[in-house]
Amino acid sequence: MKEEASVQINDPTLKELGKFDAMPQFAYLWDRCVYELLYNPEEYTKEFCAMLEQHGVTKDSEILDTSAGSGFPSLDMFKLGYKNITCVDGTDDQVALFNSKAKKDSLDIKSEKHLWEELPIHFSPQSFNALVCKGSIWYAGGGWNKDLNPTRETSLEAIRNTLRIFYSLLKKGGVLYVDKFKDSEVGHKDRVGIFEVEGHKKELIFLTHRMREEGIRKAQMIVKDIKTGVEEGLPNITYDLKEEELEQLLRDVGFTVTKPNLTEEKFFEQWLAIKE
Questions:
Q1: How many Å apart are CA 222 and CA 216, to the nearest integer?
Q2: What b/e readout covers 125-136, taking b as 16+ CB neighbours within 10 angstroms?
Q3: Which of 25, 74, 215, 246 has the most CB atoms less than 10 A away?
Q4: How far is CA 187 from its chain centroid?
Q5: 71 near 101, Cβ under 8 Å?
Q6: Phi and psi torsions of 176, nearest 5°
Q7: Angle at which helices 26-33 and 92-104 cross, to 10°
């Protein structure tokens, strides 16, 4: 595959992530980056909630976070009084980190491990006023630390089927928030943080390659040993889902689509899909 040239950013003020007796899980490192490097969680959550409220989603509404990860923004919403949030994620480490953070802050909320295709087993149709799917819908087509679907068409169909499930879980008038990396995203390789494990200094690196001719996108969080230069990290390789493709898939399953354009969201293109 022909890859785009990546951009190396050498920031002398790398975020200090601390010293550890053992290698921290990638879920923990990603969580630190989300809360300390990528977002202003307080301002983002306020704007996000205001957007939902404009579409009738209040603190009393039933909300399902379908890709809760380590808790952004659901834990932050819970702290603001959104007590009817149900949280699920498809990976053990993210669920464990979410629950440890909730327990540490004495929050009466838990995340459970459910894959998207399993949601109809656990939740009845028309159970929720809102669904949230942040930063992950393209992985419905495979590629999250596992094999990609055989073709782009089968990948798109898998995403469509996931959106059908989301549609079925929403009440009439309910909304789905979904986002996607921008079509304009440029391949990059950025040094973002530094930490130490048993005296060995490590760098945390974000890498994205857009292989446009092949229609492939690779995203990876890398840990580099500064002394040896060895880089470790699992690549996530997906088909390069286009903005117009996702919007069409949303319409295909019956949603009316609007564009919220959150100013605090710097990385993803956003959609609000409404079940009329």
A1: 19
A2: eebbbbbbbbbb
A3: 74
A4: 18
A5: yes
A6: -115, 125
A7: 60
- Type of residue numbered 170: L
Closest CA to 23 of 162, 223, 182: 223
Q: State the Cα–Cα distance between residues 52 and 81, nearest whole angstrom.
A: 14
Q: Is the pLDDT of residue 1 over 60?
A: no
Dist. CA 14–CA 19, nearest whole Å: 14
User: How does pLDDT run across 43-98, given as a tens digit for each residue?
Assistant: 999 999 999 999 999 999 999 999 999 999 999 999 999 999 999 999 999 999 99
Spatial CB neighbours of 117, under 8 Å, sequence gap ≥ 6: 161, 162, 165
Instruction: Please state whether the peptide bond connecting residue 73 to the residue before it is cis, i.e. omega within 30 degrees of 0.
Output: yes
CA separation for the pair 195, 163 (Å, rounded): 39
C-alpha–C-alpha distance, residues 150 and 137, integer Å: 18
Paired strand residues for 9: 190
Cβ(195)–Cβ(17) under 8 Å?
yes
pTM (2 decimals)? Answer: 0.93
- Beta bridge partner(s), residue 197: 20, 200
Contacts of 48 (CB under 8 A, 6+ apart): 73, 77, 177, 262, 264
Closest of 34, 38, 110, 128 to residue 72, by C-alpha: 34
Q: Give the position of tokens 């909320």.
A: 109
